[in-house]
UniProtKB/TrEMBL annotation:
Residues 7-169 form the Nitroreductase domain. SUPFAM superfamilies: FMN-dependent nitroreductase-like. Keywords: Flavoprotein, FMN, NAD, NADP, Oxidoreductase. This is Nitroreductase.
Amino acid sequence: MTILHTLKNRRSIHTFKKINIPSDILKDIFTYASYAPTHYMTEPWELIVYQDEGKSSFIQSILSSYERIGMIKPNNEPKAVKMKESMRDFLMDIPHHVLIYFDRKQDQIRYEEEYAAVCAFIQNAQLAAWEYEVGMLWTITPYMHDPLFARDIGLGENVKIAAVLQVGYPKSIPRNKGRTPIEQKIKFITE
């Protein structure tokens, strides 16, 4: 595939086969991702890959966060228990959860530069993964903004969780929904 073909044909994947991606392929994908532009060559991205039984404590931290922030009722009523079990099962079925974070800078400009670099890294990862027939879903979910969640998973308080990528071999690939013609988004100023 060419990069232009991959850019146009990559899709966000929502359902995955229950097969792990070999570690060497994941390393290759994230090595290619690391060629993202980065101000001052800081390469701010850090990754934690949760897989196999390592997903259990991560998912428990997600569920605990959802209880704290009110998305799940923190009780043992049958409906709440069923919802937690359903979420746990859904998240456990995803082969890999890749948490991407960086150290939070006090300087707003440096913070935005680092965040932009991390986002470029994430997009590169998605494109590289597609070349390996690996799918990803870039998620930004409420638990990422819960400061106690970062503590629960062993990160310090001075980090920004940029994303959690759900990663695996696609069970199905969504259809191409097209894009808005660029002519509707672009302006050329000549004078």
